[in-house]
Structure formats: structure tokens, C-alpha cells
Amino acid sequence: MTDRGDSRKPHSRAVLGALWATVAVFLAVLAVLALRVGSGQDPALRARAAATPLPPRKVLVRRIYERRVIVHLPASSPPQPMQASQQVSGAGGYASSLPVTRTS
Amino acid sequence: MSPVHDTTFHSMGSDVRLIIEQPLLPGLERPAVAAERERGYVEDFAARLSRFRPDSELCALNADPAHEVRASLLLRTAVAAGVWAADRSGGLVDPTLVGEIEAIGYQDSQDGCTPAPLADALAAAPPPRPARPRARARWRQIEIDHERGTVRRPPGLRIDTGGTGKGLAADAVAHRLRGYTRFVVDCGGDIAVGGVGYELEPIAIEVEHPLTGECVHTLRLARGGVATSGLNVRIWRRADGTFAHHLLDPSSGEPVWSGLIGATALAASALEAETLSKLALLGGPEGARRALAEHGGVIVHDDGDVELIGPIGVGGRGWAHAIGSAA
What we know:
- The complex is a heterodimer.
- Chain A is mainly alpha-helical.
- Chain A has helices at residues 2-38, 43-51, and strands spanning 89-93, 100-101.
- By secondary structure, chain B is of the alpha+beta class.
- Helix content of chain B is 31%, strand content 27%.
- In chain B, a hairpin with a 4-residue loop joins strand 16 and strand 17 (306-309).
- Mean pLDDT of chain B is 92; it is low at 314-327.
């Protein structure tokens, strides 16, 4: 009976040692991970970021159109009066010619 | 289509045309009656503000030796418009150049006079140079007091409201016609357009070339104003054989030869359009491009070339845009 008690003691001591070793390893790994996460080197995030392709950069192209119309009129051409704007029509008629903006 | 009343009469030294459509609200006069009423308004406006009529309110103001002179609402408004134009143009459209313009030979109305050939005047003109404002702006000394009903200015400082008179008259008549579906008030080419009908279907307005009389462009206007300034009508030969016209460089008091012979401007009102067209012509090509950039316009170079500027040059921005070019 006494031997049974003696033989159980080393066994429980080994189990206890393994348990402590496991806890120590776990705490060590946890400390390492905590340090890395704290310093911004989260391996999960880095892997995720590396796996996500960057969206293509948008390049905005603006085109400015300037249209300049140069009308060449022969200097020798005789004056051609525009549509008559002196015409008088009474009510009930319709505007007979377009308004003209000119030097006055 | 709605019935249109379209009438033309002579006033302010040029043709005035009124196009009026049906009233928008019941109770307003028929377009023909409204046109006759507005004709009376324009003729009264012209008589009271004429620089050439000794009995006009403007001449009475200019002759009054007092520093502060009583003035009617119309005269105060016309003087205020002249000061506004001077301020808007940085002093280039100056309403105080009466002595200068009389000195170069424009003492009396040139209504009905045959203008000197512009081509001859251009051939004899000095190298182009844009106008500049007077170093000491006299127009800043003018004060309008609507509460006291007076105008204050140094005695002897004469005012000419003619540079902005047609635009102001067009705007005033347009304001009086605001109850009609469509209306066009054309005071010698300074035009105000209004009415809900033109908001829906803008009116076409032709731009006349100052050398050939041809239509060089067609604008489309829903509301606001358009005006043209040019050298081809008020131009004459002086006794010494040189040519003069009515658009003066304020810095020299002499006619400006800026490289442009005509400028058409679009704006929110006829008064502003008239101011911008004068500013453009006085400022030469570069000044005109700046002056007309916002609302758009047309300039005619002294070699006859036509250039479209601003919104009308790129087509269809804002409330006024080009619908075509009749080159």
C-alpha cells in the first residue's frame, strides 16, 4: 500500500510539470503575438492586406474645348442689309423678322 | 402661335422696336395698347435725358451751379446707371466725358447724319491700343440721394447718360411689360427679352456685322439683355481731316482705336449688356475676351474677322447660347 502511494507521486509530478510547461509555452506565444500586434505587425491583417489587390487608381482626364470661329468677310463685299426691322404690323400678326442687335 | 404686336418707331436717335404678345394675366391691356403706352414712355424718357435738348432735365442738371440739385426719379436712376456702369467697367465707361466728346466734334445729335466710311477711318487710325480709365475718376464724385431726391456733384462736372441710356430704357420698358407672355424691347440694338414664353422657347437674335451689315451670328435668348457697340455709326471726319467717333479713351479724351470695331455682349440685363459691350470694345481683343467670358459675346476685329467668346463660343451653357453661325 505504501508503494502505491509512492508510485503515484512521481506520476502526478510529471503531469503537473507538463501542465506548467504547456501554460508557459502558451503564455510565451501569447506574449510574442501581443508584442507583434501592439507594434502593428498583426500577421492576420498583413496577410489579408497582401491578399487584397489594390483598386486601380482613377485618373481624371479633363479636356477643355475652346472653339473659336473666325469668319472672313471680303472687305469689298457690298453692304447687305439685314431683314427689315422697321416693318410695323398690327395686333393679330406675327413677328415678321428677327430682332437684330447692331451699333446705334 | 400667339398673336404678336410688332411695332417700330424712331426715338433716342435710333429705331426702337417693341414685340409684345398676349397678357399673361387678365385685366392687362391688349399688346397694341401696351405698345402705344410704352412708346410714350420711351419718347418721354428720351426727351428728359437728352444731352442735345437744352430743355431736358439732364441739361438742367449739368447747367446748375449748385453742388446739390433736385432731380426726378428718372434722372436719378439714369445718373445712377451711368455711375454703376463706370464702376462695373473699372472706369472705362465713363459718364463724365462730356467736355471731351464735345471737343472732338460731337456737340449735336448725329441722328440722320451719314457716318464717315469706317474703312477709311481704320486706314488712317493709329496703332491699336486699349483704352484706360482716367487716373482721377470724376464719376466717383457723383452721389445720388434718393431720400432727398437730389444729385450731388462738383459744380461744372457734367454728366452724359447717353452711354447707358438705351440699355436702361430697354430694361425699364421690359420691367413694365412683365405681365405679358413674351416681349422684346429693342432700343437701337440694345435689347431686353422677357416673358415666360421665351423661357420655354428662346428667341433668336441676329448680330449685325459693322462693316458689311450681314448677320454674322444668331443668338438665342430666354431672358436678359444683349447689346452691341461699334464704330460704324457715330463716326465723322474732323476739320483737320482726321476721323473721330463717340467711344472715347477716358485717359486721353480721344477716340479709342483698340483693334476692334464692334462688340456684342450678353448679360442679365440690357444695361449690363450695353456696359459690357462698350467695355469690350474699349478694352481691345484681350480686354474683350475677359469682359465677355462670363455671359458670352461676339467681337469684330478691325480686319473684319468675327470671334465668338464665352458661353456662346462653346455652345449652350446658361440661359443664352448660340444656335448657329451665318458666316
